[in-house]
Amino acid sequence: QVQLVESGGGLVQPGGSLRLSCAASGFTFQNYFMGWVRQAPGKGLEWVSSINKKGGRTNYADSVGGRFIMSRDNANSTLYLQMNDLKPEDTAVYYCADDRGHRGQGTQVTVSS
């Protein structure tokens, strides 16, 4: 059974940083592209970033490019999202997802002074 468990969210001031983690289990993590998506209050799901199987190639939404860094540790089946220079518009529930559409329960990120 696929399980994706996000952690690392919280309340941070504008300009601050957070590092999200996603622990994967129930499947062969290294065989799948992975991604992060987010959902802001009252809005739909927004793709944030994705990473290839080996972690050598990443892609980012224009809204987060240059501020967020996605990485993966295949040995430990863990996905990361380093978020820097956070802005109030980054406030959302962040989900990790595999390329089959499975998602975790999400972790709340709130950027506010």
Could you explain the architecture of this structure?
The strands form 2 sheets. This protein has a 6-stranded mixed beta sheet with strand order 2-10-9-4-5-6, with no helix packed on it. It has a 4-stranded antiparallel beta sheet with strand order 1-3-8-7, with no helix packed on it. β5 and β6 form a beta hairpin. The mean pLDDT is 97. With 113 residues, the protein is mainly beta. It is built from no helices and 10 strands.
User: How can the largest sheet be summarized?
Assistant: 6 strands, mixed
- Uncertain regions spanning at least 5 consecutive residues: none
Q: Which structural class do the helices and strands define?
A: mainly beta
Computed over alpha carbons, the radius of gyration is: 13 Å
Cα distance, first to last residue?
40 Å
Total helices: the number is 0
Taking strands numbered 1, 2, ... along the chain, how are they ordered across the largest sheet? Answer: 2-10-9-4-5-6
The sequence of SSEs as H and E is EEEEEEEEEE
Report the β-strand fraction as a percent range.
Answer: over 45%
Tell me roughly what share of residues is in helical segments. Answer: under 10%
Number of strands: 10
The coarse overall form would be globular
Mean pLDDT: 97
